[in-house]
Amino acid sequence: MKIVIAGASGFLGSHLSETLRGRGHHVTPLVRREAGPGESRWDPYTGQVDGAVIEDADVVVNLAGTPTAGNPHSSKWARGMRESRVSTTAVLADAVAGATSKPAFIAGGGIGYYGDHGDEVVDETSDSRGDEFMTALSRDWQSAADPAVAAGARVCVLRTAPIVHRTSPPLAQLLPLFKLGLGARLGDGRQYFPMVSLRDWLDGVAFLVEHDTASGPFNLCCPHTPTNGEFTDALAQAVGRRARLAAPRFVLERAAGRLANELLGSVRSEPAALVAAGFTFQDEDVRDVLAAALTR
Fold first, then answer.
1. Hey, what domains does the chain have and what are their CATH numbers?
2. Which of 143, 163, 14 has the alpha carbon at shortest distance from 90?
3. Per-residue pLDDT tens over the stretch 130-162
4. Quick check: 142 and 149 in contact, CB under 8 A?
């Protein structure tokens, strides 16, 4: 298959490109600099994208976006988070909608779409609640793909949970603290804390790329979502330490700013749509996910 990827140089994009090439697909990265061999230049902020590249594609994947890790107190960070996701999705959705061939569109998104659901199990049919930063952003992010849906293209929205891998946030930031015995649960730790291993995310997205009957939103998260307390205990045990500390709300509000309520909110998500489509997860719970994440 011919696959066009926006955000191909990022952590997820580079791994996905390698995975898809390894499965025999041809990958064309969209880049904002001068294009090299096998690349195509675009500018999502001016709406510039090569229509011939989109027309020739079987699948277009959007993973573009500024890094989530940053200063959540900063208005510039917040604006960049939103614009880099919503604008890129809108430009590619319009390009897909305008193509005669109607390639499939795999659109990035976030598990934060759901908002705080407490102990309620959340699947792809669940509603989006509240107006916290990532929830509101994720709604707009998903809506930006609507032109491709309206045009009849096959569209999959990736409602991605935090990806747990030793080289990437949040685990890369947490590991040094936990190894020093400074691991801490967030608040009372009873909130559900969705996550997914890198290998299951990659295999899940490749599955959606290759299965031409798959469409709609898909939760990319491990099947058994842990609480924050369970995650904290499992990570501490994995590095041979104990985690007896807790970060109360006032500390999180100072450290995490506009994201504090979401760190304390609860999303007990399950990947119902992926499982129903026939996908099998390798890492089903927090201990599996951490074992995969910490394996070199």
1. 2-294 (3.40.50.720)
2. 143
3. 999 999 999 999 999 999 999 999 999 999 999
4. no
